[in-house]
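Input structure tokens:
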């Protein structure tokens, strides 16, 4: 994306063209203002060890949002727990992605509030929005099931049909079911700046030396057990300044947790082998033995002791 003065950081371009098209749609309409900031397509490791992928993270005066992109075509029906898509005579049912996006909000908040930037700032409130990005998507959700769900914005002046407030209406004006309306802006400028610093302190930033598409994550944003896991992918790197990267598992069947366990067992084996083969670190202490019928002299004469302690 060209530099247009927008505070938009693309950490890596999506390998899915439909997802990247949805990000481009938002980028074209994103305000070029210092208090509108966005981070696109990154991953982080939560406190519970889970790896979470975020399509878009937005901080602006109207709120702080995790945007989950869904690009399925067809008609959407469902309830608060599950969605059903119908397209060309086929149906597929999945969990309501708002639930997953909400879990990502809580995990990302837990990571950010531990950073130095929020030592004296109020903790941010992060809200989920699911973006149905396909131009032909039709949403028939109603009631609670329609909360935090947005389609594309439509502008009649651009030949896009009838006017409709969509994802940008939700970001810029909170025009979205499930988002509470405020009389004043709920997020102030110091919170937005603290959030930007916390993202960098957590290691969520593009690598300066790795090829495009890699994301380097500092050890401060990881748990100790995930510091260095070699062999998980061709893009895994470790050095003195950074703990580990999220490996590129595209096209692979590697089990992340299984690889972590195997790596831990290999480390234990190496440490055990080194301890059994190396010489003792300190010299051995002298051994005390009993010596019976020992004669010792003193100022009053000679005394025969029943035993005495000697060293050998």
């Amino acid at each position: 994306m060209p530099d247009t003065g927008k505070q938009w950081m693309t950490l890596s371009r999506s390998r899915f063209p439909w997802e990247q098209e949805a990000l481009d749609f938002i980028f074209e309409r994103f305000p070029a203002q210092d208090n509108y900031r966005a981070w696109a397509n990154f991953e982080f490791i939560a406190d519970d060890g889970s790896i979470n992928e975020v399509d878009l993270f937005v901080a602006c005066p109207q709120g702080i949002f995790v945007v989950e992109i869904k690009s399925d075509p067809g008609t959407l029906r469902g309830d608060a727990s599950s969605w059903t898509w119908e397209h060309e005579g086929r149906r597929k049912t999945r969990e309501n992605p708002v639930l997953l996006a909400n879990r990502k909000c809580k995990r990302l908040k837990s990571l950010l509030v531990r950073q130095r930037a929020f030592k004296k700032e109020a903790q941010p409130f992060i809200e989920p929005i699911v973006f149905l990005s396909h131009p032909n998507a039709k949403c028939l959700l109603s009631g609670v099931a329609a909360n935090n769900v947005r389609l594309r914005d439509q502008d009649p002046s651009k030949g896009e049909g009838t006017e409709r407030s969509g994802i940008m209406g939700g970001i810029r004006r909170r025009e979205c079911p499930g988002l509470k309306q405020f009389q004043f802006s709920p997020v102030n400028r110091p919170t937005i700046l603290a959030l930007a610093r916390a993202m960098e302190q957590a290691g969520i930033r593009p690598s300066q030396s790795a090829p495009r598409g890699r994301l380097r994550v500092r050890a401060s944003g990881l748990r100790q057990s995930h510091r260095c896991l070699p062999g998980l992918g061709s893009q895994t790197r470790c050095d003195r300044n950074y703990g580990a990267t999220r490996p590129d598992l595209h096209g692979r069947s590697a089990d992340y947790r299984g690889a972590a366990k195997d790596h831990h067992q290999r480390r234990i084996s190496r440490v055990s082998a080194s301890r059994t083969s190396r010489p003792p670190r300190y010299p051995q202490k002298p051994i005390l033995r009993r010596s019976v019928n020992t004669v010792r002299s003193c100022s009053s004469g000679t005394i025969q002791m029943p035993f005495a302690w000697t060293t050998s």
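Confidence is low (pLDDT under 50) at residues 207-254. DSSP finds five helices and 15 strands in the chain.
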